[in-house]
Every structure is written in structure tokens, then in C-alpha cells.
Amino acid sequence: MPTSTDSVLFGIVILMLDFLAWRFTGRASEPMRLAFRALMFALSTFVLFAFGMNPLRAAPWPNEPLRHLLAQALEIVWWLQGARLVTIMLDRIVLPQAWHRERLFQDVLGALVYLAAGVAAIAFVLELPVRGLLATSGALAIVIGLAIQSTLNDVFSGVVLNATQPFRLGDWVTIGEVEGKVVESNWRATSLLNAQGNIVVIPNSVAARTNIVNANQPLDTHGVSVVLPVEPSIRPAVVLEALGEAAASCIDVLTTPAPLVAVRRATDDAVEYEIVCFVDAFDKKIGARNALFDLAHRHLNARGVVLRPLSVPAAAVHPLDGAHRLLRHVSIFQTLGDDELDALAAQLERLVFDAGATIHAAHDTQMRALYLIARGVAKVTVQKAAGELEVRRLAPGDAFGQSGILAGVASHVTVRAATRATVYRLDKDALTPMLARRPEVAKEMCRLLSEHRASDETLLAQPAASMADSGGLLDWIRESVRRFHRITF
User: Fold this and answer.
1) Alpha carbon of 403 to those of 281, 445, 451, 456: distances in Å?
2) pLDDT per position as a tens digit, 178-195
3) What domain range includes position 390?
4) How far, in Å, are 348, 439, 480, 487 from residue 432 at the CA level?
5) What phi and psi, each to the nearest 5 degrees, are found at residue 272?
6) Residue 452 — very low, low, confident or very high, per pLDDT cuts 50/70/90?
7) What pTM value is reported for the model?
8) Contacts of 188 (CB under 8 A, 6+ apart)
């Protein structure tokens, strides 16, 4: 019977402390918990070897059944403790850093170490014939293997997948017909988080037999594809040119590899065109695809190509409809009626710029006109210490100079044609009579301009202090309009 000073009780107390450290120490203090458990293993080793309970031999005290049984338990647990520490050390030293979040190799490695520790405990502590046990376990393994062959197929397929690494945790992949983000890859299955927020579990054997598309590889290029059906009566060269400019209008699209626009196929009802381009980050794919659809619509519309079902008859187009539509998109003209917009459209000056030509220079002392992009692409840049920085691209329907034509505010941006561009210019003198005749329109334009003060060209030259001194941004805009157009409202 063990006493209070017996070494067996010392060993039991050490095991209890080890268990409490494992159970109640949080994962946040993993290094501290590992160090404490290593200390407990060292103390357990000292107690066992110092008091005759050598784990490499059978337990002592065969004439004292209870004490002998407790000693056997301590020696067996010592082997399991050692297996745990060896597993952790091999995981930290042998396994690559990229595998630390993968459970498959950790589980396999841990199982092998624990199996070796169990066999050693049976051979040294219990002194059972290991050869006979291995022979019996071999036959048993065959029976179990036949019963769980599908599970073993998943395990070995998981080993292949983790060794070849077609994807990693966090990658966005398509496995067969399932698309999602890899959130777990273990010994049995791979779990994907799909776009609907659901977890899809795919057995490793299924993943190993099907096509795997990894959207995160390579790291610096991610493809975006947009397909548009267009009326077959439209000349393909017109559509291809418009879609090429649409790809050039999207600031997120890479120039290398260059975007590709091609005819995909022709049917009785439409001709399908495809834009294939690339972005430098996976998170930009959805935004770039949405922008390409919008830009394709705008560039096609600028050439008179309307995306519509063939069952819908084409509407008659008035010669001024294009200019009228461009003016309607300008934020400060939202309150104007059709007659007033038509009057402004009649005074638009049509300008054509070759690629690289400057539409507006940053050093211009005063902005006296509004520019509307009718066709082509323009780049907006600002001067920085390291050189010019592109901040925006303009496509058909975009405008700049709203603060200039209304309040005469200089802009510190430079606008250049990225492709051959058609631009309409509306001079300040065309707007002055309307503002003088309708003061309420002038006030509303000032309000709309103050709401859009965050645009690239708005109020860039005016210090914030001067705006505050004049009673606020809206009052400052109103005073600037009065001085610039020499009107009273």
C-alpha cells in the first residue's frame, strides 16, 4: 500500500499538475504551457528513474498488486508524455511553416509517434511479445482496412494533395463544380467557404480525381473575363474598338499582360464578344468585372451601339441626344430642364485629341470650361514628389471642370488623352446668361457642387482656412460664383 512519502504518489501528483496545466491553460499562452509540461515530464522522469520505476523495464513491487499497478500506469503514461513532447518538437522543427495550419500531416505524424510509444510501452513495461502482437495486428489491420477502404482512400488522397499543394488555406479555388475559399484541409476532406457563406465539404478522394482551379496562383495576375452579346448587324471592328477602350478605361486592369478582346462566337441572334484582362490582386476581380460591364456599355453607347434584346425596336436618335445625355450626367446640371440642356448642348464645342495629347494642364491658372468625354479614354494625374500619379480614368459620360465652369476654381490635375478621344467643351460664357436669368438654378448648382467637393478636380487649389473664414464651403462657393460670373443672387 503506497504511503504519503511514496514515490508513486509523487508521480501521481506530477501527472495531476500536468493535466491541470493542459486543461486550464489557454491557447494564447501556448509557449508557457509547453514549457510547464516539459518541466513536468522532466520531474516525472527524475522520480521514475530515481525510485526504481525504470520505464525501460517491468514495473517493480510484483508482490504489492496496487503499488505495482500504479507503477505500471506511471511508466505507460511516461511513454505517452514523451510521445506528446516528441510530436510537438517534430511539428516545430521538421514540418515546414506552411504546414502548421494543416491538420493532415500533424495527425499522421502524431499517430506514428504515439503508435511507436504504445508498442514500446507494451514491450518494455508490460513485457508482452511484440512479434505475436504485430502478427495479430497485421491480420486485424487487413480486416479493418477492407471495412474502411473509402476512408483510407480519402486519407491517401489527402496525403497527395498536401504534398503537391495545389492550394493552401485561404486560397479561392474551384474543385469540380464547387467554388469557394479553402478554410480547412484535414486527413479526410477539404472544406470550402462558398460565396453564399456556406461550408462545402469535399472528400479528398473526390478532390484528387477532379480538376482544381486555384484563383490565387500566380500571385501577381488574376484573370477577369466579361462576355457581351451584341446585335449581329453591328460591324465587329466597331465593337472590338469600343471594348478595347473599355478595358483601357479600367484603372485596375494591368497593361502587362495586355487585355485581349475577341469574337467568341456568332449565333443567329447575336455575336458574343469577350474581354479577357488581368488584375494584380484577387480582391479586385469582382470590382473590375463590374466596372468592365459598365464601361463596355458606355463605350458602345458612345458609338451608337445599344445593348438591347433584338425583340425591342431601336429608338430613333435625335442629333443632339448624345450631347444632351452627356450634360444630363453632370451633377451640377441635374435640376435643369430639357430645354435648358438643349440650349447648352447647342453651344458645345467638339474637340478631338490624339493619344497622349493634353486636354487640361495642371499649371492653368483658371478653369473656365467644362469638358465632357464623348469617346475614348482620358487619364487624370496629379504631380507628386516622386512624379506624376494617376488617380482616375475618364470614359464616355464622365466630365471634369464642374468647379471651374461654375466658380472659376483652378484644378491641380492634368488630364491627357490615353487613346484618341472626342471631347465636348462648354465655356463659362455659355452658362452665365442662364445663371443670371434664373438665380434659383445658380443656388441649386452651388449646393450640388458643395456636395461633390471630394471629386478629383473640385476645390483642390483653395486652402481650407479661406473656406472657413468665408462662412463655410457652400457660402464660399456662392461668393466665388458671384465674382466669376458677375451676377447677383
Assistant:
1) 34, 10, 12, 10
2) 989 999 887 788 999 988
3) 321-485
4) 14, 11, 13, 8
5) -90, 130
6) low
7) 0.61
8) 151, 154, 155, 158, 203, 204
